[in-house]
Amino acid sequence: MNPGFSPQNVLTASVRLSGPGYAAAAHQTTFFQNVLRRIAASPQVLSAAAASDLPFTFPSSARVVIEGRPVPETEKQAMVGYFAVSPGYFSAAQIPLREGREFTTFDKAGSPPVVIVNQAFAEKFFQHENPLGRRIHLSRENLQRAATGPEWNQIVGVIGNVNEFLGQLHPRPHVFEPFLQQPQGSMSLLVRLRTEPSAFAASLRQAVWSVDKNQPVTNTRTMYRVIQDAGQGDDLMAELMGAFAGIALVMAALGIYGLISYLVARRAQEIGVRMALGASQHEVMMLILRNSMSLTLIGVAMGLLFSLPLPTLTAALFTDFHVRGGWITGGTALAVTVVALASSYVPAQRASKVDPLGALRGE
């Protein structure tokens, strides 16, 4: 599915400022501006930016109130995803700008507060209105606090939706504030490169340490790895489901083998009589295989009947997702049939070697 941005040739890293020198917001702003300036100076870099959270990570949340509309109780106020980003972030991430403008260096402390929202936000709160120019109030520091005497942020742009996790069907409303107006002590760096991103990891760390050698640089990874890590839960679930399916197939094979062996043992006298009357080993073997496969095919037919709607139901859960239903259901039915045939072969072969005299004496 389209993640909403381009992860190609993008390297990321996290920096959490520590030390008394970064308690002031102005010092936080200066640090990250200097880091981005040094990173951008490299000839390998196309663009660089910083954000409080990366795409495909779960961002922090904020309560939102729309100017000119009734203010609901605090616990009923809408929750949206919140990001603080540096100028050039949307260009660096290649998130499309749908309306308005991006943040600039003039969106700083002391200038009118502004925000950019995503399409999901515009569709939810301004269905039949133009969101540009409208003002909203964000409450983050104390989400239980009522919106009294709010500071209004003007919407200056609308960007495309970016997913928070793999397979997200309905993107959550997001709000972006300029980092220069809302400094953060912990930011993620996002660097778009001309070359393979992993090779730039050492240069990125050096750019941070050239500003302050005491600040740790963590989670250095490509954007593709960020997306991959975001889907680890899905991968684990898929592996577990595959393991359970394999165990179910083995149990089915053992069950068929045990059942056919039991039925052959019960029919030992009958098989002996058939062979005494002239039935060949091949005929006895084919008789047992036909009987066992008839039971198997009845079970497979019932399984197919119940499985036919599943590909359609699965495809309906996801957009832009196509399930090869015929291959899956047909392949599974064929696999079960082959397993049943293999499990029936040993009992059938044993039945073909029954001693007719021994069977008749037992009778």
Describe what you observe in this structure.
This protein is α+β, with helices and mostly antiparallel strands and 363 residues long. It folds into 2 domains: 10-230, no CATH class; 233-362, no CATH class. The protein has 11 helices and 11 strands. It has a 6-stranded mixed barrel. Strands 2-10-1-11 form a 4-stranded antiparallel sheet. Helix 1 crosses helix 4, helix 7 (268-276) crosses helix 11 (356-362) and helix 8 (281-307) packs antiparallel against helix 10. The longest helix has 35 residues, at 232-266. The chain is elongated.
Give the strand line-up of the largest sheet. Answer: 3-4-9-6-8-7
Morphology: elongated
* Mean of residue pLDDT values: 85
Structural class determined from secondary elements: alpha+beta
Number of helices: 11
Give me some keywords for this one.
single chain, 2 domains, 6-stranded mixed β-barrel, 4-stranded antiparallel sheet
Q: Layout of SSEs?
A:
Elements: E1 10-16, H1 25-40, E2 45-51, E3 60-66, E4 78-85, H2 89-93, E5 97-100, E6 114-118, H3 119-125, E7 135-139, E8 153-159, E9 174-178, E10 186-193, H4 201-211, E11 217-222, H5 223-230, H6 232-266, H7 268-276, H8 281-307, H9 309-317, H10 325-352, H11 356-362
Parallel strand pairs: 4-9, 6-8
Antiparallel strand pairs: 1-10, 1-11, 2-10, 3-4, 3-7, 5-8, 6-9, 7-8
